[in-house]
């Protein structure tokens, strides 16, 4: 989903072709490599967006001794659906890293609605953390150290996520992001 949102965001800024978008995804941070995005996966997402009616081929560039280059543009339906896709991406995000594309293109959506979604995510995350913290686990003596380790890991990770979600909400509200 985030790849499709990224493609739509790049195409709302102007017509483009897949290879150039893949290159833009890898600069300055190689998100394509970090996310395991291959050219075949990228073309799959382009095809999916075409089938959804969100993008279309606007030009085919023919070069001698090279494959034809399809240039894509966003459709009116794509412009209309982009905010919905960004909101859905943020709503379904399991972590802050899953939100990066949506946050990077926040200019295409209502900031107040983004804050509302993030605050809901934060409340749900805090509720889940509290539920997990309430578990009373009886452990064999030989598993105590493992359980203590895992408890430390998950509680630290939860506190870290809560801190950064609150920081993200604050920076969006203050229009720093």
Automatic annotation (TrEMBL):
Gene3D superfamilies: Winged helix-like DNA-binding domain superfamily/Winged helix DNA-binding domain. InterPro entries: Tscrpt_reg_PadR_N, WH-like_DNA-bd_sf, WH_DNA-bd_sf. Residues 7-82 form the Transcription regulator PadR N-terminal domain. Pfam families: PadR. This is Helix-turn-helix transcriptional regulator. It comes from Peribacillus psychrosaccharolyticus.
């Amino acid at each position: 989903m985030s790849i499709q949102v990224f493609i739509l965001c790049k195409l709302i800024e102007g017509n483009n072709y897949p290879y150039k978008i893949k290159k833009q995804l890898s600069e300055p941070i190689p998100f394509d490599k970090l996310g395991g995005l291959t050219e075949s996966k990228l073309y799959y997402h382009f095809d999916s967006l075409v089938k959804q009616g969100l993008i279309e081929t606007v030009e085919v560039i023919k070069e001698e001794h090279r494959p034809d280059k399809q240039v894509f543009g966003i459709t009116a339906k794509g412009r209309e659906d982009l905010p919905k896709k960004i909101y859905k991406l943020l709503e379904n995000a399991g972590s802050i890293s899953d939100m990066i594309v949506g946050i990077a293109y926040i200019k295409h959506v209502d900031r107040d609605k983004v804050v509302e979604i993030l605050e809901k995510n934060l409340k749900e995350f805090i509720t889940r953390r509290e539920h997990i913290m309430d578990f009373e686990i009886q452990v064999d003596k030989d598993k105590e150290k493992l359980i203590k380790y895992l408890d430390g890991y998950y509680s630290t990770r939860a506190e870290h996520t809560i801190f950064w979600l609150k920081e993200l909400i604050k920076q969006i509200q203050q229009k720093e992001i």
